[in-house]
Amino acid sequence: MSSDHVKPKIPTQVSLNCKTLERTHSSSHRTDELSTASSQLMTLFLATIAVLVHAIVVADNQFGTMFWGCLLLQISAMLVGAWSFRRRIEHLGHDLFVSPLLVLAGLSALVWEGVSRQFLDSGQPFEIITMSAIRNLVLGLAIASVKPAPQKLTVALSLFLVIFGVTTSHDRMTHWLAGTFAIGGVVWLSVSHWENVSRRLKGREKVRWPRWVIAVPILLVVVGIGAISTNQRAAMALKGFLPSSGGTGDDSPYSRNGVGSGERLVAGTDSIQSFAPIEDAPFMQDDQPSLYDLFDDSYQEEVRMNTSDRAMALPSDLAARAKEHLHSQVKKANREFSTLRESAKNSKKPQVADIDSDALFYVAGRVPLHLRLQVYDLFDGVSWYPQKQRVHHKPFEITTSDDKPWLRLHDAGEFHEFLGPAETHALKIINLDSNVIPSPLYMHGVHIDLVDRSDMFQHGPPGLVALDRKSLPSLVPIHIASRSIDWDSLLTEEKLFLKAHTDQAISVIPTNLDREALDDLAEQICEGVEEGWPQIAAIQDYLRSHYKLNPDWRPKDSETPGVEQFLFDSHEGPDYQFATAAALLLRSLGYASRVVSGFYADPNQYDADSEHTPVLVDDVHFWAEVRVYAEDWITVEATPGYETLGPPLGFFAKAWNTIVAGIEFLFRHWVYSIAAAMLLAALWFSRCWIIDRLRTGLWRFKLWTKPDLTVANTLKLLRQRAQLIGPPLKISVTHHQWLSELIAFNTHVQETQLLYMLRREIDIAAYSSRPNSPNPETLKLCRDVEKSCTLSWFHALYDEKPLSESRKNSNFSFTENRARQHSDHQTQQPQANTSKP
Amino acid sequence: MINFIETEIMAEQAMTTNATPSDTELREEFRLVQSRLNSILKGKPEVVERVLVCLLARGHLLLEDKPGLGKTTLAKALATAIGGSFSRAQCTPDLLPGDITGFSIFNQRNHEFEFHKGPVFADVLLADEINRATPRTQSALLEAMAERQVTVDAECHQLSEQFFVMATQNPIDQHGTYPLPEAQLDRFAMKLSVGYPARLDELGMLKSATSIKNKDLNQGSSILSEGSLLKAQEAVEAVYVDECIQNYLLDFGDLSRNHPRIHLGLSPRGLLIWQRTCQALAFLRDRDFVTPDDVQEAAEPVLSVRLGVEHSNSTVIVHELTESVEVPGGFD
Q1: CA B71, CA A146: separation in Å to the nearest integer?
Q2: Which of A45, A239, A588, A627 could form a disulfide with A592 if both were Cys (CB 3.0 to 4.6 A apart)?
Q3: What is the Cα Rg of chain B in Å?
Q4: pTM higher than 0.95 for the full model?
Q5: What is the C-alpha to C-alpha distance for residues A639 and A541, in angstroms, rounded to an integer?
Q6: pLDDT for res A817
């Protein structure tokens, strides 16, 4: 390395600086940084308690020789390790690499678990593995607890282990140990506090907590809590990581406590509903709820009344139809629907609020979707009666499209301009006892794979198709082609909505209702509104905005029809009252209307992972339909909280909706949005710093793994730092020129000296024939350069002199300058001689 | 800051860790030569350094400049300093090859042909205004430069081992010139131009011209000891060139051959001379290995003599080449 004749020639100023530099470095080392014996003893005591608690939890009331042996081994290993580590550091001053060993210790628990499960056929539940990993960390940290940082971590992790153990175990002993830990913890706190104070009084330790150390965890916690509190899925996922009494649907053969569906399943005998659906449960007799039960489950059972009163409210020919219905309740799906229902309080079944039952079926495709199942046209003031099926139907026809058999139905899209483009939905039936295919309005095709015979299908309620079998096949996708309604185009077509004759089922208003009040309300709502869709929309909007959805509401007195009480009294009620009210108000204005029951595929239930929307029991729904032209109908959704499907959006509309939804989301979670924005801003503003830290970490790692490339890596690090702040470096600039620029513009003695030395080292390492052998002096130089030429140093340098400008001519300028200096230095001598005669 | 420049220079001296004591002495002698020449040609240290580089690299030098800028002075001083003989050939259109190489005449006294040595038989030859000589004469000189020998009347005569030609030429656009063809230019290692000195340097020159004592400075005795130049030239050959540096040179070569504005790229001989020049530069800078800085620094004088480009563009194109070739990291 540097030959002997160089050192004495280095100016004294520089060498002095180097000495002071070294002194400050060496002073902040060794014994001053070590903690006192008393605080370490307290730490070891706390760690012992934590290990004890862990052992008790793992033993699970089985304290054998194995238990005591393992415990003794762990504690003695910890104590001996801590003692020898302290001795080693105190006497030899070796700084050992502790962190990688600690990581390995923590991971060993997981590795052992894998081995154990694979080969020994025994295992531990997740919480015990977590505890074991932390126990290993505690042991490792306790051994290194002679230093303050591992000591603090030891205590923190011990505390965690003890608390975790107490919550997991039923053993009384753990509570006593936790109490002892609390006392020990207080002692440790006071001891370490005084230790800190005395250290600071000596002025050896500068406590510098960067702001981000405080800010980042707080922000993370705030955002985390926000994410959990607003996101059900996140909360569910998190629950799965904490010891709980099951409920996530997972089962593990290694679990110990809690209700699961594994071998230790406890048979539910008291309350069946307190269990999630289990396939092999002994108590499940009939897992297929009938359609009629579904409506009764959701809306409660109907109240039986004297039927003759109701029949009086209808014109005579229609009254006969009502009666006919009352006498022939043969097909359960074809029954009338009464708007008079039992109130939920009278229900015999206890409702368990937090149980989600399985889906009836799944919908793939765009939602919200109104899936119709039954159509009612005749209303007698209390009940809705199903619309009569047409007697003469056109025979079904199967066509093939893309090699798939499709049942072809009448496509109204060819005639009506208000219909959107054709689209398909797929239904996957899980649990539905009906042979009618729930389908949207304007369905024009049905496809079930391999069903290519038209006699497999039969006509269902108006506009619906049923399968010629008892119920729909489970788990077979049913594809439905349909058209959605373009709501905007309805506004332009004024004459679509023809007024109906009052003697038809679809337009009759029962006489037991207060017709005048109904007409007044309808007129009031539609005052000044154009006929046609605007009026219909006005009624729809009026109900949506002035009435409240309350599924538990029931009429107070049985004298007044429920819909009247809903419209004029309570202003709240279940969805069938909304549908009824909408239909009646429309009829009062002369529009033909009817009510439809079915399912509502709720977009809020949409599962983005499976791209399906489950339709649950709670999704049974009633809505109204208004007649357009002679035979077609349009959905009138009067219930607040339910939406109707429009035509598929174009790219820009989609993008706009996404933006709007995003903004709405941000406003809804404004606290977290602000926190996240602040976090992002903080990350953005400190991005250079963060990148530099990462790179410096990598550099340190390479210092350790590839010492022969230290000089190269140091140069790389410096260049990266410069590029973070300044303009990119040109490919044609040699490191010699670049470092020369830095030296030329730098004003600090120390860095200049270091850069000179580095430049020389780089020249030798890169281009000379000498081998790159790791050399302690070089390593020290590189470390010093890394510490001196920091990001802020580059900042200061670039702020003072814009290097990029000077770089343009840097190729020769510096060397020429140097050569000039060189020659001046040499020519000065003869001139000096001549000036003295 | 001057302190640090010193430190740096000293630090760079420290790079010659493999240097033998004789190498150090050689460098010291060359430093003295450099300083002598600097005191003669004021304010042009880079020109002086390049002249020495050319000498150490066993190359020949083409000086292209206007008259009266100190070319002859420099050549003479160099010859003196290296302890060799100096001769000068003033090239004119009527100069014959024999006037350069020498000729045999019949000695009537002893009835034998006697060979009269021409100016090429000196250590340092100044061929002034070489582009005014006829191509025939030019080629005679260029052959001597390349082979370091002349053949007259079927007799081969070896030239001095340290034979060094400093040819000067007027800028091309002057009248009455025979421009040197590119193939012949390739035999020169470098092309330099001295240029006018800076005002302060010129003032110093004027002042020193009025002082009687200073006049003797120019005369001086030789600085290099006998055989030093040859040893130094051998030491230059031994300077280490890393493979990455050689690849760097090859990158330049490739680029120059494929450059749209260069109609004659760098020849293999040009690359060899360039590498040797870099070695010499490293030697003068007290290093025993070549760095990319040496390559860049030698690029302009070496390339401008041999790249087939328009005369006025040469500096721009050389700069362009330097900018577009990536410097080797040296750590791969």
Answers
A1: 76
A2: A627
A3: 21
A4: no
A5: 9
A6: 42
pLDDT of residue A292: 63
Give the length of chain B.
Answer: 332
User: Quick one: pLDDT band at residue B168, thresholds 50, 70, 90?
Assistant: confident
The H or E element that residue B191 is part of is: strand B190-192
- pLDDT < 70 positions in chain A: 1-33, 92-97, 202-213, 227-252, 255-293, 304-313, 322-335, 344-358, 493-495, 500-503, 800-837
Is the ipTM value over 0.90, yes or no? Answer: no
Give the pLDDT score at A819: 41
Please indicate whether, in this complex, the C-beta atoms of B14 and A760 are within 8 angstroms of each other: yes
Give the C-alpha separation, A638 to A757, whole Å: 82
The class of domain A502-658 in CATH terms is alpha beta
Peptide bond into A368 cis (omega under 30): yes
**In chain B, which residues have their Cβ closer than 8 Å to the Cβ of A720?**
none
Please tell me the distance from the alpha carbon of residue A589 to that of residue A502, in angstroms, as a whole number.
11
User: Torsion angle, CA of A50/A53/A58/A60, rounded to 10 degrees?
Assistant: 180
Q: What are phi and psi of A521, to 5 degrees?
A: -65, -45
Calpha distance A506→A592 (Å, rounded)? 5
What Rg do the C-alpha atoms of chain A give, in angstroms?
A: 41
- Closest CA in chain B for residue A831: B39
How far does B159 lie from chain A, in Å, by closest CA?
34
The answer to whether residues A622 and A396 touch, using CB atoms and an 8 Å cutoff, is: no
Quickly list DSSP for B122-152. SSEEEEETGGGS-HHHHHHHHHHHHHSEEEE
Chain B residues near residue A709 by CB distance under 8 angstroms? 331
Domain boundaries, chain A: 29-203, 307-349+356-491, 502-658, 687-833
pLDDT of residue A48: 93
Interface test with B, best of A708, A732, A746, A758 (most B CBs within 10 A): A732
Chain A residues in contact with B326 (beta carbon < 8 A): 731-732
Question: Tell me, what amino acid is at B45?
Answer: P
The CA-based dihedral angle spanning residues B301, B306, B308, B312, taken in that order and rounded to the nearest 10 degrees = 30
Query: Residue A151 in contact with residue A82, Cβ under 8 Å?
Result: no
Helices (H), A506-549: 515-525, 533-546
Q: pLDDT of A768-798, one tens digit each?
A: 887 777 778 888 899 899 988 888 888 888 8
Q: Which two tokens stand for residue B194?
A: 């001295």
Of A546, A575, A569, A547, the closest CA to residue A556 belongs to: A569
Q: Please answer yes or no on whether A821 and B3 come within 8 Å at the CB atom.
A: no
* Rounded-to-integer distance, Cα A181 and Cα A132, Å: 19
Note the pLDDT tens digit of each residue in A334-353: 567 777 777 765 444 444 44
Alpha carbons within 13 angstroms on the beta-carbon side of residue A480 total 28
- What integer pLDDT is reported at residue A510 of this predicted model? 87
